[in-house]
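Researcher: Here's the sequence for the chain we discussed earlier.
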Amino acid sequence: MSSDKVLPDFFSVFRYFDYGDGEYIMTLIEQNIIKIVSEIRSKKEWNIKIKNPEIKGKWKMELLANFDEKDVQYALDECEYLARKYAEGEKILEAVDGTFFADDYIPKSVLNQLIQAVEEFEKDTENSQDWHPGSDQQVLDLVHPSLYPVINEVSRAITKDLSPSETDIMGSYMNLGTGSVDNVVFSTQNNKRSRTVEQDFISKRFQWLPAEVGVDAEGNTKFLSYINNLHPKKYGKLYACIEQVLGHFVPMFNKVLTYSTEKYVSKQTPRIKPATYYVEEFDEFVARIKKEKNIEDKPQKDGEKAEEKDDDDDDEDEYWDIFDEQKLVTPPAEYSFSPQNIIEPVDIVDLNGTRLQVIVKMANIC
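Model: Thanks. This is the structure I predict for it:
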């Protein structure tokens, strides 16, 4: 399956920014509001319960034990506003900005099939267990892309052409062992003259191998290539279960990507703007410190100007050394939630009728 659908540009932390680009820096008050918002939205059916004044009042009393009242009220008002915007029966809810979750989202019949298929797979592989590093044998990796990744100058590919092409899962599997190492070109090799984010943050030797997934017009998913470290013929039942689970996640992927476009991220504004804080200027800081230490500015005589200037320069350097840590920063006295702070996305992402590359992981927590 190939697709001509054009998706918008997405924000990524793996690139360099000019001053002022990217996500804004949160004030301490906003960070506290985010913590409260997260606590509220972690409650099951919070979007329904927050409309009940009695429940909302109970939550407020619980939150006041750990947070400032203005922060709590701001978070409650924001959550109630968003809850009233959700369509009745909406299951995919925003946890905190740009992240989404859903309770009881995957049908139990699908979950039961998945559990049964995973149990069968785990029995087959019990003699070759891979415990996750640093987990003290608490996390058993069943399928993990790092177990057998693509290795530069070792792994082989049948072509350098990375454009989407019609394929099927067994067709991709039958090509295993063929190809040439020269066909595997890492992105960091494309431009050796300029320094890029890829060269700084992405491995030049190892890369995970994604599975190709087709999404039809109704949002159903189908693996078009094998899952790395999972035999497609032997574990076909498990493939089918993962496809069903993945299909349910496509609407959630749509939500996350809609709120991750460059256009949307660039329009976000702080809940509590830094400009609402009072920040002591350097001259004010010096005057305050001198007053606290009873230091007076002495009048200079003509013969003392050069020497006094050197002393003043030394004093100023000392003040600069402590300015950032000791300057007064006073938060705003009043602030509250306003619906104007909520920016609606412009580009709505729809992955139906497209093709994805998916990394599959499965682990058992013992």
